[in-house]
Write a structure and sequence with these properties.
Layout (H helix, E strand, L loop, with lengths): L29 E2 L8 H14 L7 H14 L3 E5 L2 H11 L5 E5 L4 H8 L4 E5 L21 E7 L8 H10 L3 E5 L7 E2 L2 E2 L6 E5 L12 E5 L2 H10 L4 E2 L3 E2 L10 H12 L1 H19 L5 E3 L13 E5 L9 H10 L2 E2 L23 H6 L3 E4 L7 H15 L2 H8 L7
Parallel strand pairs: 1-15, 3-4, 3-5, 5-6, 6-9
Antiparallel strand pairs: 2-10, 7-8, 9-10, 11-12, 13-14, 14-16
Helix pairs in contact: 1-7, 2-7, 3-4, 8-11
């Protein structure tokens, strides 16, 4: 169900913008990642079944059905549903017996690094290819040490990283490979659906994802022994009632989360169609606007169009920069996001005494702007958002003067 729709205020002149004192274009905030909601009656039916069975967790029938749905979509031989994508990454790293150092891109959600650090592993941050925003395979060789045991690649924005190059590099050096596929459910690489690559791939079904279980995740793999170990670890590593054979945790998905996930899967085609419509609408509105470009998805592949990502090409001397636009849009109740700023390697838990320099990551992190999409967004909303962007980008001097001293929203 979409939010109640109120037509946004159209911006026709510079003084209409909220930063100049006008009312916000939107009465209610527009969020990046507002949840897609499937059929209410279907969800309540599944929840009612859970209630009647009194089977709320511990590998119930809905969790098994959810795992089957994920495995069928991805083509993976095995799927292990878990409580979150972050916990899925932890379980995969532990099950694969990673130790010491693990190479990971810095331009990713911090959970990718946190999942490793919580296990006592050291994330070693790799730069990205500025064209794809994914891990640069050519940068890997300089990062490998005798302590390196694995690589975590990230399929950012649903765009697969260079899977073949990363896998080949890892196999030549005896390293394990996990792919963080949090953004990539239903996407493909060279015609094969994401979920069957590396030693394991990890999905997120958080509320912001195109398929959501409110909170949830899954690990997919073609390795039966690894799948068995993951199932063991997600339930404290119990064998039977009172025998514990490893250091496990409570990583189980509940039946209620699985009910939400199944309902979401039922509507996946609808969600993707809406995302694609929104993506094309943004592209049409912004295609001829100087200083901004909409990130394209590779042709010939499947995409979920979960993110509308634009890059702002202005500089501090000549025009408006990305953070200026964040301030302008937030004032209009458009809560655009500057993912993934400033890069994990520059966040306090990972900042080194001698700073790591990742030039492509640091550049891209200052230019990326993610705009609202999903079933909560209407085409009139997109037209209004793009109108605000066009008006701001066409008047850099006045905008910069007005914004002087205004903090960037976090």
């Amino acid at each position: 169900m979409a939010r109640s729709f109120r037509r946004p205020v159209v911006r026709e002149a510079l003084e209409d913008l909220a930063i100049f004192g006008g009312p916000p274009a939107f009465e209610e905030p527009l969020h990046v990642g507002a949840p897609n909601l499937g059929d209410r009656a279907r969800l309540l039916e599944l929840v009612g079944d859970v209630y009647d069975r009194r089977w709320l967790t511990n590998d119930g029938p809905l969790v098994k059905d959810f795992e089957r749905r994920v495995a069928e979509l991805t083509g993976a031989e095995h799927c292990v549903a878990v409580a979150s994508g972050t916990i899925g990454l932890q379980l995969a790293a532990h099950a694969l017996e990673l130790s010491g150092e693990v190479i990971v891109p810095s331009f990713t959600f911090v959970a990718t690094a946190h999942s490793l650090a919580w296990l006592g592993l050291k994330p070693v941050f790799c730069d990205i290819d500025p064209q794809t925003h994914t891990l640069d395979p050519d940068a890997l060789a300089d990062l490998v040490t005798p302590e390196t045991t694995g690589i975590v690649g990230v399929h950012l924005w649903g765009r697969p990283c260079e899977i073949d190059a990363v896998t080949r590099f890892a196999r030549e050096r005896g390293l394990r490979v996990i792919f963080d596929a949090a953004h990539a459910i239903g996407c493909s690489f060279r015609g094969k659906t994401i979920g069957r690559f590396g030693d394991a791939e990890v999905f997120s079904f958080h509320a912001t994802k195109v398929v959501n279980a409110a909170e949830g995740g899954a690990v997919t793999t073609n390795d039966g022994d690894l799948a068995d170990r993951l199932r063991l670890l997600r339930n404290y590593a119990f064998v039977g009632y009172d025998t514990v054979v490893d250091i496990g945790m409570n990583a189980k998905m509940s039946e209620l989360s699985a009910a939400m996930g199944i309902t979401s899967f039922d509507a996946l085609d609808e969600f993707v169609a809406v995302n694609r419509r929104n993506y094309l609408c943004y592209g049409a509105e912004l295609g001829d606007v100087p200083g901004v470009s909409v990130r394209e998805y590779p042709e010939g592949e499947r995409h979920n169009y979960q993110y509308v990502v634009v890059e702002i090409t202005g500089d501090a001397q000549a025009g408006i920069v990305r953070d200026d636009l964040v301030s302008i849009l937030h004032a209009e109740n458009v809560l655009a996001r500057r993912y993934f700023y400033p890069g994990c390697h520059q966040l306090d838990p990972y900042r080194l005494a001698e700073p790591t320099r990742l030039p492509a990551t640091e550049d891209v992190a200052t230019r990326v702007l993610v705009l609202p999409t999903g079933t909560a967004i209407h085409q009139e909303d997109i037209t209004a958002i793009c109108g605000i962007l066009r008006l701001a980008l066409a008047n850099p001097t006045a905008i910069r003067r007005q914004l002087a001293g205004t903090p960037v929203p976090m």
